[in-house]
Amino acid sequence: MLRLPRLDVATPTDLDTALALLATPGARLVAGGTDILPNLKHRLGEPPLLVSLAQITRLRDIIEEPQAGVLRIGAGVTLTQTSEHARVRALFPSLAVAAGQVASPLIRNMGTLGGNVNLDTRCRYVNQTDFWRSAIGGCLKSGGTVCHVVPGGRNCVAALSSDCVPVLMSLGASLVMRSPNGTREVPVADYFVADGLRNTVRNDDEITTEIRVPLPTMPRRTAYTKWSVRQSIDFPLLSVALRFDLEHDRVSAALTDVRVVVGVLGARPREVTRLEELRGRAFNDPEVIKAVAERVHAQCKPLENVPYEAPYRREMLPVHVRRAIAALVAAG
Ligand SMILES: Cc1cc2nc3c(=O)[nH]c(=O)nc-3n(C[C@H](O)[C@H](O)[C@H](O)COP(=O)(O)OP(=O)(O)OC[C@H]3O[C@@H](n4cnc5c(N)ncnc54)[C@H](O)[C@@H]3O)c2cc1C
Ligand code: SF4
Question: How far apart are CA 312 and CA 302, in angstroms?
Fold first, then answer.
């Protein structure tokens, strides 16, 4: 049995107290605990104090604000609540699908959306026991000096394996961050950086308080597709969020915008480029499927950072993209 390191746990009931406790040197936040606790059991960090967000009820609201044009989802809302919420399902079906595909029902009941966007990066060489890692001398992310994925590389390329982040990026969402110095709003697209050791611009004294998703202003179709070995519990080994904005609410309508975000490549999701060329084409034009799948294949090159061979994952990316778009078109 793997044991947690010795640590204290504080359970504040308001944000100001949580922020004050977070100032303790080395303190970390815990929400549902479904990511950080296994990592601590693997000795990926030994914080003296965990500041729990579980008792802060104001982080658990979902509020629609038509005038501001946003749905505000509290960082403490669980993945189950996100996936089952009527307005999330109606406005952002791809987000409901992504949240509903994380891990297993029990983990989704504990895990929060705030924890999902702040999930630590993962790698087949680091998400192992301390004993396993010591046998290969560690790596840049765990007390060593080399990277086993990119030998000779100086950067950690561990992958962000969050199901919800690619979708939130495709929807143009932003994160509200609170610190003792005030509040700032950061677009999800700007929150992540390509460094597996520290893949967000979050400062140590900041707490994500809510996720703001802009309400749709025109008809659209969205999808999230994920491949994992055991669909009942595993992290994604491939993931793609798709969004097609339409001139009218039918699949034969012209595209006004296309956004495709691919996850699990590196420490930040990749937004596929050169899709503006599809604007004006009918969504159900078979050339659209072909063009999106080709661009995904050309621009996305998985690494051997998570299980399964990178060439296989690369070849499967366009397959999943084609299937997802075909299903959207068939659904009408
Ligand atoms: C077996 C297993 C399978 C899993 N499969 C998947 C999967 O398929 N897809 C997937 O996306 N995830 C998966 N996970 C990871 C995890 O369950 C989810 O990502 C979950 O959403 C994490 O949320 P949490 O509230 O439990 O986060 P925690 O574990 O509490 O925290 C995760 C990280 O976020 C930080 N954090 C938490 N809340 C905040 C906040 N409000 N502000 C700033 N930082 C914060 C913590 O300090 C920590 O670093 C899996 C985990 C397990 C154990
Ligand atoms: S990508 Fe390299 S440095 Fe990063 S965790 Fe994996 S092996 Fe370690």
Answer: 9
Quote the ligand 2 centre to 296 CA distance (angstroms).
Answer: 24
Using CB distances shorter than 6 Å, the residues near ligand 1 are 28-36, 38, 53, 75, 79, 102-103, 107, 110-112, 114-116, 118-120, 161-163, 207-208, 233-236
Cβ–ligand 2 distance for 306 under 6 Å, the answer no
- pTM (2 decimals)? 0.98
Q: What is the pLDDT of residues 75-108, one digit of tens each?
A: 999 999 999 999 999 999 999 999 999 999 999 9
**What does the block give as tokens for 178?**
């609170």
CA distances from 315 to 183, 232, 235, 324 (A): 42, 23, 19, 15
* Alpha-carbon gap, residue 266 to 155, rounded angstroms: 11
Q: Domains of the chain (ranges plus CATH)?
A: 57-118+159-214 (3.30.465.10), 220-331 (3.30.390.50)
